């Protein structure tokens, strides 16, 4: 059981300000293992056409500023981890209306979870059982990238534009940074986790469409942990948070 849960809990913490998976992670609880020194050479090198962009970081921060003004959106996050010969997958899909409304499902190694919160209630579902829980404070999705503006970043590269909704509608930027610093976490024993970030920016409206994160780290009692995460934002400005029919039925039955 420990080998199944440790990698997932660790990565939840590393990405908590970049992906809204934390909303459910807070309910699952638990502490991750200690992190030891990783080797950045273990990060897979993708052979993509790219060039150094001196204005790349400025462009990313401007996209962060635009994205912070968005109050409702949908999100899908896929996380894959590998340690030794074990593979784990997690997927989050849901809708968010800031500052505190959320409806989100999560699948972790085949097990499903659900969370719903509006102005008045917060409920969590596990194994088809709905339970009231404490209010969830949604993380600052963009604050982690803003925090890097005062750091000494490695070079920012621009890849070829790609097509997501219409031809060549998305700019793609890439840089390397310490995942612990990005997440705003205390560095265990002064160690870091070098990671590669790929940022996808809508060419017209300038908000962030997607964030990819690839990292490799050494974890006590586990070994080398390789992780890939892809966080996609969509339905910008049109998303609504509605109570699931199953929860609505549950609440009606409680009142009887």
UniProtKB/TrEMBL annotation:
It comes from the Bacteria. Keywords: Signal. Residues 1-36 form the signal peptide. This is Outer membrane lipoprotein-sorting protein. It comes from Effusibacillus consociatus.
């Amino acid at each position: 059981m420990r080998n199944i849960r440790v990698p997932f809990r660790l990565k939840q913490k590393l990405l908590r300000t970049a992906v809204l998976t934390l909303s459910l992670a807070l309910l699952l609880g638990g502490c991750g293992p200690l992190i030891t020194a990783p080797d950045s050479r273990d990060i897979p090198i993708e052979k993509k056409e790219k060039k150094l962009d001196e204005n790349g970081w400025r462009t990313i921060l401007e996209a962060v500023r635009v994205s912070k003004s968005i109050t409702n959106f949908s999100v899908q996050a896929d996380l894959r981890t590998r340690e030794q010969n074990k593979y784990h997958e997690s997927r989050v899909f849901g809708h968010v209306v800031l500052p505190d409304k959320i409806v989100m499902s999560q699948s972790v190694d085949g097990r499903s979870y659900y969370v719903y919160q509006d102005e008045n209630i917060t409920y969590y579902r596990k194994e088809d059982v709905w339970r009231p829980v404490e209010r969830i404070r949604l993380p600052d999705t963009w604050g982690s990238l803003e925090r890097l503006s005062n750091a000494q970043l490695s070079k920012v590269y621009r890849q070829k534009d790609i097509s997501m909704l219409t031809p060549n509608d998305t700019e793609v930027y890439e840089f390397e940074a310490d995942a612990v610093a990005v997440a705003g976490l205390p560095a265990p024993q002064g160690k870091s986790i070098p990671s590669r970030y790929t940022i996808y920016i809508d060419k017209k409206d300038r908000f962030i469409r997607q964030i990819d994160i690839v990292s490799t780290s050494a974890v006590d009692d586990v070994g080398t942990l390789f992780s890939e995460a892809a966080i996609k934002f969509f339905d910008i400005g049109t998303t609504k948070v509605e109570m699931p029919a199953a929860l609505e039925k549950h609440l009606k039955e409680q009142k009887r």
